[in-house]
Amino acid sequence: MAAAMVSSAERAVLEEEFKWLLQEEVHAVLKQLQDILKEASHRFALPVGGSEGAAKQESFVLSVAGMDQVKGVLTLQGDALCQAIQDARNHVNQAIYLLMNRDVNYHFKTGSEVLKLMDAVMLQLSRARNRLTTPATLTLPEIASSGLTKMFSPALPPDILVNFYINLNKLCLTLYQLHVLQPSTTKNFKPAGGSILHNPGAMFEFGNQRYEVSHVHKMECVVPWLNDALVFFTVSLQLCQQLKDKISVFSSYWNYKPH
């Protein structure tokens, strides 16, 4: 209906504006997205220091939510990072690759081509953001076999199990206190399934031994550079959507579908 109401002169003007959008503005947005996402990617890399390239330590003060009197200091060094961080960075780098695959001399011929590129970039950005906003669910045996408990120096007691995960802009540490179930008390044994946070009473079997969670302590702290990364993701997704909206507005004047 809109196409029928556009005069020849108006159509010519719209075609010139659309051509400018494809040749100039699209590349400007792609460059802006590249700059933002490169900054986001840098946030996921621990800086190195020293002449020998030794990894720089990062220390975090973790506390129980709402209880400032219960605190602990956690120092991460080298590649002792959560898998979610590496996964998020991989998705960001894939989005950067998609954007850099079209250099400044590349000529976009249709709006559909731009829309497909934006959809592909937004998919990677959504996956990166989801890795930070949706912690993985793990069973207690998976946590026990992850080796996280062995990372601590000095070593943790054998009746302690720990798990790290990222939730939005926070680094979370969950500490599970365990007690061994004696053979005479395991008739009602029911192993717990996967969960982000297991509750007291959860049971599991590991190394031919059955355990029950007696106490759970969750500590967390805000990681500023994770907050920066989430902001970069949000801004980038908005830029992609704004460009898609502009393409769709022009496409509505023509008798072809934008996809």
Short characterization:
This protein has 259 residues and is of the alpha+beta class. It contains five helices and eight strands. It folds into two domains: 3-58 and 77-135 and 225-251, no CATH class; 140-222, no CATH class.
Notes on the structure:
The protein has 259 residues and is α+β, with helices and mostly antiparallel strands. It has 2 domains: 3-58 and 77-135 and 225-251, no CATH class; 140-222, no CATH class. Helix content is 42%, strand content 22%. The protein is built from 5 helices and 8 strands. It has helices spanning 8-43, 83-100, 111-133, 140-144, 224-251; strands at 48-49, 54-55, 58-64, 67-76, 160-167, 170-180, 203-206, 209-222. The strands form 3 sheets. It has a 4-stranded antiparallel beta sheet with strand order 5-6-8-7. It is elongated and about 90 Å long. One of its GO terms (biological process) is brain development. Pfam families: Rogdi_lz. Its main location: cytoplasm. It comes from Gallus gallus (Chicken).
Number of strands: 8
The average pLDDT value, as a whole number, equals 82
Strand order of the largest sheet: 5-6-8-7
Q: Tell me, what's the shape?
A: elongated
Span between N and C termini? 19 Å
Largest sheet: 4 strands, antiparallel
- Count of separate structural domains: 2
Number of helices: 5
Low-confidence stretches: 48-55, 255-259
Q: Which structural category fits the helices and strands?
A: alpha+beta
Q: How large is the share of residues in beta strands?
A: 15-25%
- Fraction in helix: 40-55%
Topology order in helix (H) and strand (E) letters: HEEEEHHHEEEEH
